[in-house]
Amino acid sequence: MVVMYGRRRIGKTTLLNEFVKKKRNIFFTATRSLDDTNLSELTQAVMIDQGVNGVAISFDNYMDAFHYITTITNDEKLVVVIDEYPYLIETVSGISSILQIVIDREWLNRNIMLILCGSSISMMEDEVLSAKSPLFGRRTAQMDIRPFDYYVSAEFVPDYSPEDKAISYGITGGIPKYLSMIDPEKSMDQNIEDLFFDDSGYFFEEPENMLQQEFRNVASYNTLLATIAGGAVTISEMSQKTHLDSSRVTQMIHSLIRIRLVRRDVPVPDSGNKRDIRYMLCDGMFRFWYRYVSKAVNYIERGNGADYYRHIVKPVIHDYMGLEFEKISQEYMWRHALEISDELFITDIGKWRGTDNEKKEPADIDVVCIDSSSRKCMIGECKFRNEKTGRSEFELLKDRARLVRPYEVKKYFLFSLSGFTGEIEKETDAVCVKLDDMYRK
Predict the structure, then answer these.
(1) 3-class SS of residue 150
(2) DSSP 129
(3) For residue range 351-400, what is the model confidence (pLDDT) as tens digits?
(4) Is 156 exposed, middle or buried (0-12, 13-18, 19+ CB in 10 A)?
(5) What percent of the chain is modeled with pLDDT above 70?
(6) What distance separates the 2 farthest-apart alpha carbons in the chain?
(7) What is the rounded distance in angstroms from the CA atom of residue 106 to the CA atom of residue 150?
(8) Burial class (CB in 10 A: 0-12, 13-18, 19+), 145
(9) Is 273 exposed, middle or buried, given 0-12, 13-18 or 19+ CB atoms closer than 10 A?
(10) Could you give the CA distance from residue 271 to residue 112 in angstroms, rounded to a whole number?
(11) Are the C-beta atoms of 404 and 356 separated by less than 8 Å?
(12) How far is CA 111 from the centre of its chain?
């Protein structure tokens, strides 16, 4: 019994379809519909396995359907997939208890592989994996499907320049469905215009479509997400700008975290101070949409979206990519941590932010890689801009090394889109990583 879950558009169904392609399988996808409709669809899936066109048998209930599956098993392994299982939980009272009985009494010693899959992460965790679930203890594996990182995402656009590969990742968040919508035969600019800034583009209504599948009060979530994209990072800031009660904002934020559109951003190393916690959009497509597209809806619907992108958005695309490049650089360090330093065993990577008490001003360090056991670390600065990175950025990074005490800084990294000045490349204390290097095998 395998439990698979992950946010919408992450590629779960595609992965399952590939897995069962050459295997005997009963593949049933539940829907938000009446119980009878789902039972009929399950019956149809069973009949397809039996090579019957149309419904040759009917079941009075799910117990009968699952029992029938028991009777048709043989020496060949049968893969039973129930996709969007949370919809079945919503429509069929006690479905998990029914499955538990069938598993314990009939399927345990049969050549059956059961896969329960769902996009409602909270329901899969609470109703399938938690100790209160009737199915608790039955699973033999679980798969939490996550987005691709920057490096794998580039395989969707192999002929793009490193800069355009990074942007394609920055506007999709590594979500497979979103990456698949990019046409590698078109330029990056043309793809953005067609997908975001055209009222027939795939992404033009995607955020609202996603929210409608998850929430009833879409308008409130729209407002909150736009506020976060606009720079509000604390509950109090969001409450003030949305005019929603802070308790309501907290509840909405927790819901957005559960569906993985928002994440809690905790500095690295963690100070333990709750006041340091911020909330960020973790989906690149949502962040891009709410930052730029939501403000251009009237232009787009009048057919002027392409002009809006070229004159308003494209000139500041590097500003947008600043935060995304920090994420890419952190992912690069996770990929190469062991080869970069055999002295440190990296246990956490993230961003440090806080106050420089000596200078009495806010400060941050883009990349911090810590070895919690040795209290040593590596730190880095990221620049996604057309100018080369040089000594001033390096000196600033070295100065801020004192901010991560008691951790001792062992290496300094500079990450740059456009390369480095000659003087800094000769600096023995600095490890210079150009964006081109980050995409090399």
Answers:
(1) helix
(2) I
(3) 999 888 899 999 999 999 999 999 999 999 999 999 999 999 999 999 99
(4) buried
(5) 99
(6) 79
(7) 45
(8) middle
(9) exposed
(10) 48
(11) no
(12) 34
DSSP 36-92: HHHHHHHHHHHHHHTT-SS-----SSHHHHHHHHHHT--SS-EEEEEETHHHHHHHS
Q: What is the spatial distance between Cα 206 and Cα 27, in angstroms, rounded to a whole number?
A: 27
**H or E stretch including 352?**
strand 348-356
Q: Is residue 10 a contact partner of residue 145, using CB atoms and an 8 Å limit?
A: yes
**What angle is formed at CA 378 by the lines to CA 388 and CA 415, rounded to 5 degrees?**
20
- Alpha-carbon 395 to chain mean position: 34
Q: How far apart are CA 112 and CA 79, in angstroms?
A: 6
Concatenating the DSSP letter of every residue in 374-437 gives: TTEEEEEEEE-SSSPB-HHHHHHHHHGGGGGTTSEEEEEEEEESS-B-HHHHT-TTEEEEEHHH
CA angle 273–279–280, rounded 5-degree value: 135
- Residue 142 DSSP SS3: strand
Pairing of strands 348-356, 278-281: unpaired
Q: How much is the pTM?
A: 0.92
Q: Does residue 315 contact residue 340 with C-beta atoms inside 8 Å? A: no
Measure CA of the first residue to CA of the last residue in the chain; give whole Å. 36
Contact 409, 401 (CB under 8 A): yes
Counts for the chain of helices (H) and strands (E), in that order: 21, 12
CB 250 within 8 A of CB 235: yes
Sign of the torsion formed by the C-alpha atoms of 47, 53, 57 and 58: positive
Which amino acid does the sequence have at 432?
C
How much is the pLDDT for 122? 87
Average pLDDT of the segment spanning 17-24: 96
Residue 366 near residue 329 (C-beta atoms within 8 A): yes
**Region 28-43: what's the mean pLDDT?**
90
Count the neighbouring beta carbons within 10 Å of the beta carbon of residue 348. Answer: 14
Residue type, 164: D
C-alpha 76/C-alpha 154 separation (Å) is: 39
